[in-house]
Amino acid sequence: MALGVMLLSIMSPIMRYWSPTGNAAFMIAALIPVALYALVMALSWRKHVDNNVLEDDDARRILLQLGIQTFACMAPLGLLGYQSGNIVGVLRVLSPVLCAMAGPALMIGLLLWRRFPAKLTGTHRTTAAAIALVASAVMLLGVAAAWPVPSSVLPALLVNAVAICGLAWKSRRPEAHGAAAAVGSLILVFAAQLLLGRVGWNE
Q1: pTM to 2 decimal places
Q2: Of 124, 156, 117, 188, nearest to 164 (Cα)?
Q3: Which residues contact 81 (CB under 8 A, 6 or more apart)?
Q4: Closest Cα partner for 194 from 151, 161, 143?
Q5: Cβ contact 130:146 at 8 Å
Q6: 175 and 122 in contact (C-beta within 8 Å)?
Q7: Is residue 75 a contact partner of residue 30, using CB atoms and an 8 Å limit?
Q8: What tens digit of pLDDT does each residue of 100-146 get?
Q9: Coil, strand, or helix at residue 50?
């Protein structure tokens, strides 16, 4: 936990002195802390969930880790948005990154809530469900923030599709497979419109 917070905290002064300009630089700068965040949460899940066995105390540690690492990741992203001076424009450019950031919370929340109901207290199950709902809202808002620019909407949808497919694979729930199919259909619609030339990539 301490190492993850330290690495993410280091990103804030790096952002401060780097001051990226241009969409590509902003995307790269935002991807670094989000990638660290996802890696830390994946390692935390692997550490506490051994052979699909989870105790309530392990769930408490995972939820605590998720909360601390999430806020640590938000700090450099917030600084990045502040430095840009155009929050709306940054949200549109970074919408795929915001969707990616919500992915670990969605997976952890739903997996804790659905896979270990007998092991978790009502408080921890409720907390996990609330986290999953908030993460789902962030992923939807990420797509909404990207609208109507295909160069932002399509990557955001792709990130959401990857996260939901991973969730469907881990949870084996038909609802997750249905959500993955729905997002996949939207991606196909956008891709078809682009290939037919009805919309431009940066329109």
Answers
A1: 0.78
A2: 156
A3: 87, 90, 91, 94
A4: 151
A5: no
A6: no
A7: no
A8: 888 888 888 888 877 766 677 778 888 888 998 898 888 888 888 88
A9: strand
